[in-house]
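Record minuted for completeness.

…
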Amino acid sequence: MIAERLVEDMTDAERERAARVESVLPVLRAMAEESDMRATFPASHVGLLRDAGLLGLVVPERFGGLGGTLRDLAAATYAMGTACPSTALAFFFHNTSASRGLLPLEAIEAGLFTEEEAPNVRAFAEKVLTRMAGGTWLANFASESVKSSTANITIATTARPVDGGWVLDGEKSFGCATGVADYYLTTAKLEGHETAEGLATFFVPRDAEGVSARDTWDGLGMRASANNGIRLNGVFIPAEEALTIPGAFTRMLTMSRGSFVGNQLAISAVYTGAAQSAYDHIIETLTRKTFADTGRPIASSPLHQQLIGEMTQQLETAYLWLRYQLLLETSEPPLKPKHEVFTQWRLGKGSVTEACFQVALIAFKAGGTSGAMMNGVVGRALRDLAMGLVMTFPAERGRLETAQIITEAKANELFTTAARSGE
């Protein structure tokens, strides 16, 4: 199976779940080019993935899901990325919603919530998981166009209390499945709070009064991911559809194994799948086409041999970084403490996405002028993979933060205490 190119040591259960993903790939692949040209997420894909049981891929079986883990999610987004990166990206963001259920439950078990808080936290967490397992598509809306110099994601959307619930106002600039998902799982800050302690999570129905889509997103990235974003203008959300305990968001994040809410590497798997598709396509093209004068494959020329070698190196670089991060975030017992896993991810995300983009860029060069088309596998890959260079944070920021972590730790080693003279 395609997924085994990334996760090479699948268990029987993982292989069975991967087979479900494999079954939908022909449809995703067949519709990828038209979807990209129209810049529209095919609504039929929701039913396709729901019928395959994949909307509950990473939901534990006790809540009705398939019981998959991060390994399953990475394998799935990778395989989908080889067929339709836009669908893979939207599917990834749906599955990130599961963290809003899984991590709070782990935090309860770890004793991070009081006896008074725990029932409300548990009820919300289980609602997230049972809805996903039941076939509800959740669009995870956190990112905003507002930026700060100290954080990768800044939340300006506000939630103020009213009788029976909350009223949300704000704008989410990034989030797949706009107009497609059943609910927008939305992060907002509680009125009166200016720190992360005030972050809360809300189920926002797609058709709720006051919810509208932003202008059509015409970007370089995955154009068929319905990535428009939303506006919230006085949207009322009932209290039972929200998790608004101050500090709940930050407490649950402490339970993740590594990157943010513990599943971010699966987005890099999307890019790696897209890069593999571009690689396979250009290799097949160059070996099939021949020179008119010699009859030899174009792939045999010194120029193309050099390009193929470089492209292969870049692709293998992406795999090495991604597989190692996956190992760090799923191994039992953990191989490294969380702060080291997090540091590795800061390097790994940029390393994977830059390598994947280079694969598409080299494939573009190898295809020559006849292959320089906006449509087609390589043309789409070049645009799709450009998004990885900036999404969440660019490689430069990851390297900077890693350097700061290393040098600050080393600087602390330079200071010690000494006994007073004569003692």
